[in-house]
Amino acid sequence: MHPFALAFLAALLAHLATQWWLARRQIAHVEAHRSAIPAGFEGAVTHDEHAKAADYACARQRLGVLEALYDTAVVLAMTLGGGIAKLGTWASSLAPPGVPAGTLQLLAVFAVLALLGLPFTIYQTFVLEQRFGFNRTGPATFITDQLKGWALGAVLGGAVAATVLWIMARAGTAWWLVAWLTWLAFTLLVTWAWPRVIAPLFNKFSPLEDQALRQRIDALLARCDFHAKAVYVMDGSKRSSHGNAYFTGLGREKRIVFFDTLLKSLGPVQIESVLAHELAHFKLRHIPQRLAVGAAMSLAGFALLGWLSQQGWFYSALGVPQPGNAAALALFMLAIPAFTWIIAPVLAAWSRRHEYEADEFAARFSDGRSLAEALVTLYKDNATTLTPDPLYSAFHDSHPPPAARIARLRSLGGPGPSAAVSP
Ligand SMILES: [Zn+2]
Predict the structure, then answer these.
(1) Is 31 a catalytic residue?
(2) Residue 243 Cα, ligand 1 centroid: separation in angstroms?
(3) What is the reported pTM?
């Protein structure tokens, strides 16, 4: 066996072992705290709600471990098991060699991965989310979502695959640099097109009608010197009762989107404080920082791919006897995550720091206590466990653990939203 194949297997196993170990810690910690509501949340959550959140967290961990095992088996079957090579032979028998056969091979790889992932999506939606009362997706919505997602994936994935393959064939040894620049342009295009073209395929967006709330939001935007084009309400309740709010778009074209489920569960002051938090991610330049780090990481990825695609052992070690551009892309997508998971905790820690900064901003321009109330309601509605295992949380969580976050928000307080909003 080639040393690279051994390193790949060892990395896959290490990832699996880490996921399993952390999940076990999380389950043990959550179960140990199942019957006691943590300090600071008494009166805000009932014993039943606290126990439900614990059961939900544990059920998701158990499914997650099973899914990790399954995903590892799929990656092994596609690489060492010869799946990518077989799809390559199949594609060459149907399409002319070069870009057409390569694109078909990559689309076939995507299709196989999507099909193999389907049982988990179905189980998660119709069994797990259903059992805890979150699912509102009916079979018809589920099937049309899948079909639209597949069509979109085929069009966007096919276009990207064909473009990158064409660049690989034409742009010489520095093809990876050209491909990276093209990738950046594509990312910007999708960011622009998402709210306009793609998101409306899946959900309805209507302008926020509540005038009092709209005035409160406008006052907050003016206070923070922030420009957003429009405020929309999205019919998130069509699929799930989980609530959320987000910003989308670029430059002056930014939009604020509230899930209808969020508007139903929070009061106006709480909604304002949630919005102030989301706004902070723009004002404190978290979004451009994340984009820049993403661009730097994709540059490193393309440079590595440029080098690996020239190495014969990269193919032979991973179950592809015949080197080829499409095989290089497919192997890279499937094999490299076996190594890169190791930086996930660093990114999670960075994200948690941003969350704390955004909370501080919200306390300054809106109200820390209202945001704490809003978060407690959201934790309750989403059955988020209030007692995660510290190590699990440090490794996986993009947001700070609830107890620490709420305590900090309450101590920050704030000027109170009424100070700046005329009655
Ligand atoms: Zn945030």
Answers:
(1) no
(2) 14
(3) 0.88
